[in-house]
Amino acid sequence: MPDGGQRRRHTLSIIGCGKVGQTLGRLWHERRTFVLLDILNRSAASAQQACAFIGAGNVAASYADLRSADVYLIGAGDDQIAACCKALAASGKLQPGSIVFHCSGALSSLELAAATAQGAAVASVHPIRSFADPHQVAAHFDGTWCGSEGDAAALAVLGPAFSAIGAQSLAIRREQKTLYHAAAVFASNYQVTLIDVAQQAYVAAGIAPELALKLIEPLLSESAANAFRLGPAAALTGPIARGDLATVARQYQALQQWQPQTAALYQQFAALTADLALRKKNSKP
Q1: Could you give the angle at the alpha carbon of 58 between the alpha carbons of 55 and 60, nearest 5°?
Q2: Which of 5, 106, 175, 233 has the lowest CB atom count within 10 Å?
Q3: Cα 243 vs. chain centroid, distance in angstroms?
Q4: What's the gap between Cα 77 and its chain centre?
């Protein structure tokens, strides 16, 4: 709607304003994308902390205390998204034209069915990155890929809003949302687990934990850089890539004696790595 020659900024309220909500809220406030109205958290203290981090917004004591907003972000944990949406719908705040979205990577916009029933447009927009440190993410959000799906009316507003804070949008299929998120878990969470496993193995071999991480860091960073630059198959090195199955067998036996659970993981990765090595071999001219 025109207002003094400018388009009126949409209003936004956040329900369950944790690390993701705080980061996005801060960026949207700083870049004047949304007008932040209210924040509703489990406790008034955490809502006040979120307002302070964002630099805007008022603490809402309950759903009834929320003012009517154009857009609602439900930033609660995955297991609470549907319940929060139902409570929002029951509060009478939604109407045709309202937009409700969440940022879960694992769940689709179908979790927001209660809002759909009230005539709202719904979507999910998942920033593909870790939010362990909101200060750091807010400072380096530009270029972040965001997987999005949902109603066209919702994405017509949310797409430009995310673009305004430097995001790059990637359309995903609602029915493949779980598989999409599993890929992110492999790339992020399980990578951390693998670092932990490698550190434990080094420690079991007599190396101090702090030094073990220093040994892992160049291996990991160089391998990742090569994989992104050359592609995974071309970047593969090590005994399986060389066809040195005797070394693989000895390593498996050593792991079996040390920690059978880790040996089983090694065996599973060895099978997948053998497939990757075959692709590398077949790709050579």
Answers
A1: 145
A2: 5
A3: 37
A4: 12
